[in-house]
Task: structure prediction
Amino acid sequence: MTAEPLDGRLARYRVMAIITGTFLVIVFLGLLRYLPAVTAPEWLDTAFGVVAQLHGFIYIVYLIVSFMLWSKTSWKMSRLFVMALGGVVPLLSFYLERRVTRDVAASLSQ
Result:
């Protein structure tokens, strides 16, 4: 295992984890408009609909990048599943980004 391809894959994963997590938080906040006590303007539904669709496309890229990183490591399949959950569980991608970075750095230093 050479360091350059894994470093590049890690960098792509980190960027996509942050972007995906940010869009997911925005989508989650957009869902709060459905609470009975919240009144939101009409244009907000359209704006959050666009953000939700963008998140869907970004999530697909995140899955591809996660798979590319996972396939270069010797991690178990369950690790890939948890990485995939990072794009659908709010704030999980930020935690996983730090955790995966630490684990890859540890494997590169060995």
User: Anything to note?
Assistant: Helices lie at 3-31, 42-72, 77-85, 92-109. Residues 3-109 form one domain. The radius of gyration is 16 Å.
